[in-house]
Amino acid sequence: MGDWMTVTDPGLSSESKTISQYTSETKMSPSSLYSQQVLCSSIPLSKNVHSFFSAFCTEDNIEQSISYLDQELTTFGFPSLYEESKGKETKRELNIVAVLNCMNELLVLQRKNLLAQENVETQNLKLGSDMDHLQSCYSKLKEQLETSRREMIGLQERDRQLQCKNRNLHQLLKNEKDEV
């Protein structure tokens, strides 16, 4: 099922309060049940996005949230948020420097992703504009092609009529020659 873990956070007070929480061995987010309930229910449009994300960690699941984040971050190659104590105890202390460095690295990655997303959106707009221009050119060329085909058919008909008239005139000329 799970085990009891104790984390000492020196930043909580001058007395270095200890946080104890029952943690689960499952690799699920501490707010997974809450998230499933929220996703299944209809979310009002006026609800703030921050209130949806703030449900991840509550006063009751701080240690579980930190453990989950530690597992996820180490999975992605970040250093552990915990500092192993040098004694034989299995007590792990939260390393604030590691937390801050991970947060900074995540913010840098977020900025890079936003920049990349902006570049992709700009490129998509350019490509959309190019596509519209090409479709417009295609429509104009198609109209020109149809106009040229109609003109060609008209000229072929005129040529045929002139050839018939020419044959008739040749026949008349031949008849006139024969009479003379």
Task: Please describe what this structure looks like.
InterPro entries: Adhesion_Centrosome_assoc (IPR052300), Afadin/alpha-actinin-bd (IPR021622). It comes from Pongo abelii. One of its GO terms (biological process) is cell adhesion. The protein has helices at 32-40, 49-53, 62-75, 96-179; strands at residues 2-8, 18-24, 82-84, 92-94. The chain is an alpha+beta fold and 180 residues long. The chain has a domain at 66-179. A hairpin with a 7-residue loop joins strand 3 and strand 4. The longest helix is centred in the last third of the chain and has 84 residues, at 96-179. It is rod-shaped and about 135 Å long.
Intertermini distance: 125 Å
Helix content: 55-70%
* Global Rg: 40 Å
Low-pLDDT runs? 1-28, 33-47
Across the major sheet, the strand order is: 2-1-4-3
The assigned structural class equals alpha+beta
Number of helices: 4
SSE string: EEHHHEEH
| Global outline | rod-shaped
By DSSP, the count of extended strands is: 4
Mean pLDDT: 77
How many strands, what sense, and barrel or not for the largest sheet? 4 strands, mixed
The percent range for strand residues is 5-15%
In a nutshell, what does this entry contain?
It contains 4 helices and 4 strands. It has 180 residues and is an alpha+beta fold. The protein has a domain of 114 residues.
